[in-house]
Amino acid sequence: MTNNVPTTMKAAVMHSIRDIRIETLPVPQLKDDEVLVKVMAVGICGSDLHYYTDGRIGHYKVEKPIILGHECAGEVAAIGANVNRVKVGDRVAVEPGVTCGTCEACKEGRYNLCPDVEFLATPPVDGAFVQYIKMRQDFVFQIPDTLSYEEAALIEPFSVGIHAAARTKLQAGEIVAIMGMGPVGLMAVAAAKAVGASQIIVTDLEPLRLEAAKEMGATHTINVAEQDPMDEISKITRGKGVDVAWETAGNPAALQSALSSLRRGGRLAIVGLPAQNEIPLNIPFIADNEVDIYGIFRYANTYPKGINFLSSGVVDAKKLVTDRYRLEDTMEAMERALNHKNECLKIVVYPNQ
Ligand SMILES: [Zn+2]
Ligand SMILES: [Zn+2]
């Protein structure tokens, strides 16, 4: 079933580092269990910027032209013969990783660890800076009319925060510290608020980001350029420390302060990936205080919750969108994200406008 789907579409294709060209490509053909989504909004993520400037993240290397972008939402334009979860015309959020469904990780429900996952905009898989994208139906989620496409695109970074909250068992009434207020950190604040953290203490260097954190639900902001995070957290918690800390920036000093901000028996999540493999951590502190440490890799089973939380109005995630671009200007959008970090929060590209 289709809805006036053209045969060709525009795509923003990265040919090499800092070289994105607008090209005409065929609209993807569907398998029986796939959905064709007319892409209405795509957020630019830190990982897109890494591929754009370095051509690689760890062992994932761009070896042929690739389409970036993985935080997307849109309208169902066509469905395969066996699709029953959505219909043509539905507004949907797209979860960007398609898993095998049969390996141990998948069967355990931890499908983010599936070794065969095909994740949008992770080489060699193409992403969402296109007008139409196809996706297996179990990764397409209907959204209510009250949720805008740009908010639905933000479910992706929001999912990381929801997953961190689940992994670290953050409970209503607990105190959480979140280090780093990039888009993932900001959406993690929203996740902490959504699950009912009583105090949400955040750190960053950029005043714009700390202000945005307050909008997302932070109760205390610490500018680490001016204040010592340990002193401030100690004051706020009256010397006790926080129940849970999440480091989202991949900053070694922030990871060390996240660890030392914990109360005895506290839980730490490592969300941000540092540039270096090894960072000194206070091992006796971890042992003496029975600290639990959780690695966070993407997310699993978060989209339905993310859609419900954002639809409920618990936070207004739209406030994070500072810049909007057409697909034709994807490269300009990437350059803006790179060169104006102090002015931009989330930049969104609209492929069908
Ligand atoms: Zn992302
Ligand atoms: Zn699997």
Describe it:
This is Alcohol dehydrogenase. Belongs to the zinc-containing alcohol dehydrogenase family. The protein has 2 domains: 8-153 and 316-350, Alpha-Beta Complex (Quinone Oxidoreductase, Chain A, domain 1); 158-295, Rossmann fold, CATH 3.40.50. 27% of the residues lie in helices and 29% in strands. It contains 11 helices and 19 strands. The protein has helices at 46-54, 104-108, 149-153, 155-167, 183-194, 207-216, 229-236, 252-260, 283-288, 303-311, 330-339; strands spanning 8-16, 19-26, 34-43, 56-57, 60-61, 71-79, 91-94, 97-98, 118-119, 132-136, 140-142, 175-179, 199-204, 220-223, 242-247, 262-270, 292-295, 321-326, 346-350. Strands 3, 6, 7, 10, 11, 18 and 19 form a 7-stranded mixed sheet that branches. Helix 4 (155-167) crosses helix 5 and helix 5 packs parallel to helix 6. The two termini are 24 Å apart. Bound molecules: zinc ion (ZN) (2 copies).
CATH architecture of the largest domain: Alpha-Beta Complex
First-residue to last-residue Cα separation: 24 Å
The name of the CATH superfamily of the largest domain reads: Medium-chain alcohol dehydrogenases, catalytic domain
| Bound chemical compounds | zinc ion
| Count of alpha/pi helices | 11
CATH topology of the largest domain: Quinone Oxidoreductase, Chain A, domain 1
CATH class descriptor name of the largest domain: Alpha Beta
Rg from alpha-carbon coordinates: 20 Å
Outline type: globular
Beta-strand proportion: 25-35%
Query: Given the helix and strand composition, which structural class is it?
Result: alpha/beta
Uncertain regions spanning at least 5 consecutive residues = none
